Amino acid sequence: MKDFPYRPRKGQLDALKFIKKHAEGIVCLDAPTGFGKTAVVLSALLPLGPVMWAVRTGNEADRPVEELKEINRRLGKNYFGFSFRGKKDMCLLARDIGLKDSESVAYLCRQRREKCPYNNSLEFKPEGPMLYTEILDICKETGSCPYYSQRGLLLHADLVSLNYNYIVHPALGWVIKSVVPFKNFFLVVDEAHNLRYAGNVFSEEITLNTAKNAVREAEKVDNEVAEEVKKIQLQMEELMRAMERRGEKERKINAGEFYTPHLRSMKKLGEEVRRRMLEENKTPRSSIYRLATFLMESMKFEDVKGVVFIARIERENLRIERWDMRCGEILKSRWNEFRGCVFCSGTLRPIKAFAEIAGIERYAGRHFKTELGQSKCIVVKGVSTRGEVLTEKQKRRYGKLIKEFFRVEVNSAIFSASYRIQGELMPFILKAAESTNKKLFVERQGMSGDEGRRILDRFKKMGGVLVATMTGRFAEGADFPGKELEAMLLIGIPFDRMTLKTQLYIDYYMDVHGEEKGWYYAYVIPAMQRACQAMGRALRSAEDKALFILADERYGETVYSRLLPDYVKTESVNFEEAGKKIKDSWLSLSRACG
Prior knowledge:
The protein is an alpha/beta fold.
């Protein structure tokens, strides 16, 4: 097909035609990792009109732009597109001053824009697709504002790639809509299974320390306001003591109990604190402002179904979270704003369930297959991470499985269901690594993005065993083609820990979708999506091969196995025979792949 830049593989042209046919409606496209969804979707839509490509994180926004460059090069086209970033990444004045958080940078722009040395938009005719860093570099050279310059580029864009929040949050959406109407664009939502977290943009939290800092701020400026803030601090301390007396770590609360008619005066004082700090070239943060705005905004959600308030004790501090569980309710009106919508993911199935969760009523949905390499998938019976902690028997069994897995002489990965399980089994992993002389590359909870990239680069370069979780950064978004990753041990199913928050989430979904579906939608599907995303790291093309060891007998149950990727055919084996089965399966796979 003349619009497709590559030699098409199985399923790609069918998917392209399917998208074109239903482009001005809603398309739900499920296709495995490695299918080439980005190239297929862009090739289908670009001849029809401009495309807005929504991604979960800013780093992912560059991928479709890089693909657009390749489409232009291969097909001799002249499409223009760019990755759109917020003020935090694009404000040169903030970089000069050293501000790094989004809220402070936005405040800086509001206060200093008229006098900003970069207060001019660079108008230029783009010669080709641009990453946000390329826009940033040009504006640095010319002394122009990168943020407002990229808004001007929206008028020329055949493709703009940006964060989900610009679609979900009305105020952020206006940043785009004030320049170009959404109705001009086809919307593509990449990794669309992540839309279930859409309500997070309306979620927020404060702590007891926020209130304490607010009191100290207020005492320096206005004693009357300080007294009102002190009352909120005392209420939070009393709540914390009451929870401690009852042995509670978390509790559902009513935000209204912290209401005071003085919130507006608190906010006004907080704004004054921020202004003074900025004048002193300090980060314009104010605990009074944060406390007041949190409580004022919370009053709007107090009786909204699907929004809950949770108090949680953490390390001698009390954390109060406003948590918005809504997804379909927030999103269902968004989709009609666009010329058409395409939702794509390697884990969109069951498509009907996804559509219900995302507030989609009418759609054309289809699953596509392609040629992927060969794989073997073993479900080990007799092991499970079920329960709050691993029993000593289960630890020993997992230890033996880990030892057998390390004998497979290829680049491998151990993905655990949680950091807790990873920690419990780390002694066995270290011992197996020592006995086989293999290098370990371990993902740690809370590690920075830069540290994660360094670990990933070293693993790919040096080889060994990657130790990570199915809820972490390496389980989704990282690619390991060819020999970079050929064997994977999945320990457990990555269910959300059954906290109060998880239970409230399940209860809400049961209320909205019915008891059986609600549990399935809120608890089972997200866990299996994480597992499938992790598995998708190892099998990227027809040339790849992968051995999957699913070390939890629950993977063999129908409710879970039907959600596994269709490119794997599972074979169950008793724990006692697992070592021999792992060895034989790898030898068989190696022979089959030459």
